Amino acid sequence: MTADGGSRDSAARVFREIDRVRDESGAPEDEPRHSDLASGKPWPIFVPDPDVEDSG
């Protein structure tokens, strides 16, 4: 369903947007947040923003 979460991964972009809206508006408490629990992949997929400098 999702690839690597990069800029060309349209499914991951859509899921991140859904998560953002749910973070702002709320979601059912008993609804799992992961799009594919059986995949074993972490969610949400985080990809470092190339425009952000590491301050650490």
Automatic annotation (TrEMBL):
Region of interest (Disordered), residue spans: 1-56
Domain named NACHT C-terminal Alpha/Beta: residues: 2-44
Biased composition (Basic and acidic residues): 1-36
InterPro entries reported for this sequence: NCAB2
Designated name of the protein: NACHT C-terminal Alpha/Beta 2 domain-containing protein
Lineage: Bacteria, Pseudomonadati, Pseudomonadota, Alphaproteobacteria, Hyphomicrobiales
